[in-house]
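User: Okay, second chain of the day. Same drill as before: sequence in, structure tokens out.
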Amino acid sequence: MIRFSRSIYSEKGISYIQETALRRESLSGDGSFTKLCNAWIEKTTGTPKALLTTSCTHALEMSSMLMNIKEGDEVILPSFTFVSTANAFVLNGAKIVFVDIRPDTLNINENLVEGALTEKTKAIVPVHYAGVGCEMDKILEIAKHNNIYVIEDAAQGVNATYKSKHLGAMGDIGCYSFHDSKNYTMGEGGAILVNNNKFIERAEIIREKGTDRSRFFRGLVDKYTWVDKGSSYLPSEINAAYLYAQLEIVDEINDNRMKAWQLYYAGLSDLQKKGIIELPYIPEHCCHNAHTFYIKTDTPTTRSKLIEYLKTAGVLAVFHYIPLHDTDYGKSVSRFYENDIYTTRESLRLLRLPLYYDMNHSDVEYVCEIIHNYFLDLSKHK
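Assistant: Same drill. Structure tokens below.
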């Protein structure tokens, strides 16, 4: 069976974990490897402050607290995203305003954002789907003109850029994921990129359970105490050690994934030319990170049958996502601005193919062959 996703195995990561344990220092976080990861993110992206977190979900929740999101506020985001994007703000009482996506990149339609604004709008949350950047120039311009915040959900966007700027480093806050399913992993984890300097000190406090512990360790106060709301968003040093080994070879991992992505594109491009499927669209000004390779079928029925055909041939492929506005709970905490033209339509046609670091090229070619066979068989029975 060709699995959809596979964890990165890193011998050096194991070595770093052992090194951390042998030091007999605290394993609870903010040790040497956490600091190295934070510094790598800051240097690579240009963000003034990066902090590892226990997940991207928690980075988003921290963002919500930093913006003082409260009952009655509205937050604009796409419905085509993971539930954490919305939950982070719903937890603090916000009303979610969903905006339709673009059919090409599957990102939020930047031309609809301004119309969705009201006097209650507190933030815009663009989601960089598949590591392809949203149209950030337009979104940032709207936010600046209307004095509202931008929080980038760049869970899938580590090491990807928009007009040479790293995803997650353009809005007031950026959020990364280092979950097991992502390009670079610490098992379960994430990071918050604080690009607006006024939030840096408070981000440290919220991450440390609402205490000024970070200031204490820098010698700025003689003891630390409870100064604000917060929670435990600090990951274990063991997780950070495993992640750092991958950040040291970030280009190698990226190049490996990109070769598989390009093999898929080349192997299936003839089906796109015939109008049978659609392949991912990457704008010229975006440099993606090969996080996901997907195809879009003509109908949901075709997608379902193709999933089963692939499974029978030993290939696990999945779809992504169920639009949030169409769920029972989503309906109770949100509204959809104007019409859902593309969100549901595109989500019902999308099929994600296996892609992971060190995936055999022969496996990619096999998946392409099975997809070709499916449509060949289909044409024979018409």
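The longest strand covers residues 49-53.

User: Thanks, on to the next one.
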